[in-house]
Amino acid sequence: MSIWEYANPVKFMRLSGRVLPYVIALAAICLLSGMVWGYFFVPNAENFGGSVKVIYVHVPAAMMAINIWGMMLVTSLIWLIRRHHVSALAARAAAPIGAVMTLIALITGAVWGEPMWGTWWEWDPRLTSFLILFLFYLGYIALWAAVEDPDTAADLTGVLCLVGAVFAVLSRYAANFWNQGLHQGATLSLDKQKHIADVYWFPLLLCIAGFVFFFVALVLIRTRTEIRLRRLGALQQRERMA
Amino acid sequence: MIALLIRDLRLAVRAGGGFGLGLAFFLIVVTLVPFGVGPQGDILARIAPGILWLGALLACLLSLDRIFALDYEDGSLDLLVSAPIPLEGVVVMKALAHWLTTGLPLVIAAPVFGLLLHLPGDAQGWLVLSLLLGTPALSVLGTFGAALTVGLKRGGLLLSLLVLPFYVPTLIFGAELVSRGAQGMATQIPLLMLAGITAASVALIPFAAAAAIRVNLR
Amino acid sequence: MAADPASGLRVENLAVARGGLAVLEGVSFALAPGEALVLRGPNGIGKTTLLRTLAGLQPALAGEVSVPPESIAYAAHSDGIKATLSVAENLRFWAAVHGTRDISEPLSQMNLETLAERPANSLSAGQKRRLGLARLLVTGRPIWMLDEPTVSLDTDSVALFARVIADHLGQGGSALMATHIDLGLVSSRDLDLTPYKARAPEAGGISGAFDEVLS
Q1: Per the CB < 8 Å rule, is C21 touching A237?
Q2: pTM of the model
Q3: How are beta strands C174-178 and C143-147 bridged, if at all?
Q4: Is residue A115 in some structural domain?
Q5: Residue B76 and residue B81: Cα distance in Å, rounded?
Q6: Residue A3 forms part of a structural domain
Q7: Chain A partners within 8 Å of B165 (Cβ)
Q8: Structural domain contains residue A189
Q9: What pLDDT, in 10s, does the model give residues B29-84?
Q10: How does the UniProt record describe the way this protein sits in the membrane (chain A) (predicted)?
């Protein structure tokens, strides 16, 4: 048994079909409990007001926005190196979700920024680089849509994803250099920073876990759809050739 | 491979205004800016580095889709792929030809345009230097975008969407270099970053572009 | 790294794909020097795909080809001729790409000497095709792969084309062609591709990535 067995579309369909309900359930539990806890059972911070509660959407969405490109990078590499179709289709399935996550992070950021900084939008490096990341997502999705042959599209978008990852990171540092911003530093990291109190921390963790499960569920559903589409395409092509 | 460069340059000249078109576009951009923001010299001087860099970027973008499209249509690209020269070399020559026909004329003419926009005299040198260092990266990255979209019927708009995000770091450091130079601030970081981006792009992007062409011809 | 033309081209069990699915499989043939092979078969059988695969423009699914793509000169309907360059400039470019051979001989062989300084866009269809053939000569490669070489040619040009092919074969070259026209070549054989049509996976053919039935 190796993990590569599940790169076979049929095996992947079987496994993902079995796992999917649990992932959906986990996503629902985490999101519901995290949101309810965060919104109704946590006191307002004195110097932030009620608007701070947008972090339960903003922070997970922002994390996902970046990490989804990372996931696409890995799956694209697997496709380019090992030619597993499911991997390429998973990257394709993840891209629109990543774009929406980026958009959510930008919009909730604007909603939060207005009461905090007194402006909906500021050309702050963090905000700017999210906007650029959004453009990268758009280009990636557009290239998938534009190329007719699915294997060609998978190859081209794979290369675009690799080069894009490098330039997305580069743009982040360039933006940093270009304008020292007013956005606070990252709210959390693995070693749990000091400036966020436990009361906010735990519901936030739940929300992040919920977003991750939600993302996995969406990717599985969308990848399954893509596989069915490819199967349909293969059937039609066989019919034409016969 | 030099033969390829010579052929592409010759084609650019014969096609009429290979060198001039980008310059004319640049001139139009520079002419339109004062109409948009007003003729005050101090405002123009402050935004000049950004305008000139944006103009260079757009002038470069304008001609990208022709880098491979013509060779794709008449079958030359098939023949070049099966020719005994590395495709990566073909890509480099294509990018170089593009730079010589669009980037280099801009570099040379930039001081004139800087003058029109009241760019201070001591910033002129920085403007030329930044364009000289930065525009090769624009051409190489554009060649990559052109390689990705070579087989597509309406690739022009998609090409812009793909390529423009890649231009962000170059634009930031290029414009920053000029405005820092104009204000007499330290220029070392943007200078080195700009040179670094160009060097890395020229060294690595041709491999990605060649891979994309092979995929597209399959 | 031109392969020894004396050994000719041998293809064994070749399978080629279009759009991710096999279209031809088990293609085997030999092409000796001085010989021409004309690919036959209905439209869409995969003649172009086979030629492009042999020329190294796309990967084969399976099988062996005895010579590297470097000894194969490929030509499709469009010859890569630049309209704004002169005949000589077009040829000189491809000569340089392929390692600088003299272009005066191909020019005279194709009867193009008087047209050498004319821009290519002023040539007639037949003259353009002669220029395309001159480009094939310039590559110096022994095996020619021609995809529909007689499209848009009048009868005179077809006759000239047949003569050039015959000359090439006479000098120990070989040619693989996809064409519907009978060129009247002495040393020409037909290869019908119909028997090599790829079978469906159920019948034992090569299966694509999405041919398995989803549960």
Answers
A1: yes
A2: 0.90
A3: parallel
A4: yes
A5: 9
A6: no
A7: 132, 135-136, 139, 164, 167-168, 171
A8: no
A9: 889 999 998 888 888 988 888 899 999 999 888 888 888 988 898 889 999 998 88
A10: Multi-pass membrane protein
Asked if the ipTM is above 0.95, the reply is no
Q: Which two tokens stand for residue B7?
A: 């052929």
Q: Does the CB of B158 have a partner CB in chain A at under 8 Å?
A: yes
Distance CA B85, CA A51 (A): 62
User: Among residues of chain B, what percentage have pLDDT more than 90?
Assistant: 46
Q: A174 is written with which tokens? A: 């360039």
Whole-number Cα distances in Å, A65 to A58, A97, A218, C82: 10, 8, 14, 47
Beta strand C174-178 with C188-192 is unpaired
Give the Cα separation of B205 and B91 in Å (integer): 9
Query: Does residue A133 fall inside a structural domain?
Result: yes
- CB–CB contact A227 C210 (8 Å): yes
Q: Is C10 helix (H, G, I), strand (E, B) or coil?
A: strand
- How far lies C159's CA from each of B165, C77, C153, C154, C163, in Å? 55, 17, 10, 9, 6
C59, containing H or E segment: none
Q: What is the DSSP letter of C4?
A: -
Domains and CATH numbers, chain C: 5-203 (3.40.50.300)
Cα separation, A104 vs A57, in Å, equals 8
**How many independent structural domains does chain A possess?**
1
DSSP code of B19? T
Here the tokens at position A82 are 């090992």
Rounded CA gap, A64 and A73, in Å?
A: 14
The residue segments making up the domain with residue A82 are 57-183+222-241
The residue count of chain B comes to: 218
Q: Which residues make Cβ contacts (< 8 Å) with residue C101, sequence separation at least 6?
A: C95, C138, C140
The whole-angstrom distance between C44's CA and the closest CA on chain A is 9
Q: Which tokens go with B18? A: 């290979």
Residues 6+ away with beta carbon under 8 Å from A130: A62, A65, A102, A105, A106, A109
C202 CB within 8 Å of a chain A CB: no
* Cα(C66)–Cα(C72) distance, integer angstroms: 11
The answer to whether residues C128 and C112 touch, using CB atoms and an 8 Å cutoff, is: no
